[in-house]
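Researcher: Good morning. I'm working through a list of sequences from a screen, and I'd like to move beyond sequence-only analysis. For each chain I'm collecting a predicted structure so we can compare shapes side by side. This is the next one on the list. No need for commentary yet; just the structure.
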Amino acid sequence: MEKRGAMMSRSARPEGWLRDCRRLLALGLIVLTQCVLAQDGRRFEDAAGWAATFDSAARDAWQKPDEVIHALRLTPGMTVADIGAGTGYFTTRLARSVPAGKVYAVDTAPGMVAYLKERVVREALENVQVVQATSDGPGLPERVDVVLLVNVQGLMVSPGDYFARLKESLKPGGRVAIIATRVEADRGTRSEMRVPAERVTDDMLRQGYVLDAAHDFLERQYFLVFRPRP
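Model: Good morning. Structure tokens for this chain:
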């Protein structure tokens, strides 16, 4: 009788079991993502080796960096954060676009951070500051006008929480530009790390952003720009 009563008690509260299952699934996803991040962190320690790919002239043909920079509508005195800066492919271009402003080159991989610091000195990028970030946030020392993230969406442990906190790092009227590999692209970011544009948009809207612009000139990637809802 006690066993039967316990079973009835459990079945009478299915919402509790569903809630527990959701929590376990969420925890499992976080652990899995952390493992992937750890693996990627080790992969990206060879920053000099990755520079041959990330900064290659061949990338310009499909990444169209000049068009991307133009679409960001930057002005000379703006402050910009390049989150997931890698070896500095966009960082250097952003620095030239805001000569009277500031660029924060942000990355979580220590190897990339070290490489970026060396590159900043080597190329005399006086308006660039390198920032060692964590998976929880970019660690920006001040508010910025524009945040650029290129192919980092699939590496985030909890994108919703990340972008909710990121609003605190934006100046009034600030914008967040997200560029990531399309799910159907024949090359680019690993397929298991791709996040559909629709999901990104839904997540951003849920976190209090509105879609400011959607550019379609990149063949392999979507390019979405958001700003906090007024």
